[in-house]
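Severity: low
Component: inverse-folding endpoint
Summary: output formatting inconsistent between runs
Steps to reproduce: submit the following structure tokens with default settings.
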């Protein structure tokens, strides 16, 4: 999980004074990226099977660098806390079906507007 987030943290560390608050916010961005990647698995253009989707989710959740970044993420508010706890459960089936239904409902709601 070497990502743009790592490069951002490196940049702020070398060029500016990286505060703990800024670092936590940068780590929190990965939570949004991970959830987006999970919900994108349920796009109509995704060719992965259910088993492959669950394996993809499992690999992301069990990645050691990913675990550290999710654990370091911190942002005030209820929803950021819930997103973080949601991923920290590492319950593949729960995350799979939650993201599947989230994608379904958001697509249907967007089509109705």
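Observed output (run 2 of 3):
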């Amino acid at each position: 999980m070497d990502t743009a987030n790592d490069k951002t943290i490196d940049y702020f560390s070398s060029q500016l004074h990286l505060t703990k608050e800024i670092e936590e916010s940068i780590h929190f961005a990965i939570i949004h990226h991970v959830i987006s990647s999970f919900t994108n698995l349920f796009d109509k253009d995704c060719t992965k099977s259910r088993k492959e989707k669950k394996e993809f989710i499992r690999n992301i959740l069990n990645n050691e660098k990913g675990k550290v970044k999710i654990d370091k993420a911190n942002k005030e508010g209820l929803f950021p806390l819930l997103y973080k706890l949601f991923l920290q459960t590492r319950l593949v089936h729960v995350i799979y079906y939650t993201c599947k239904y989230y994608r379904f409902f958001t697509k249907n709601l967007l089509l109705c507007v």
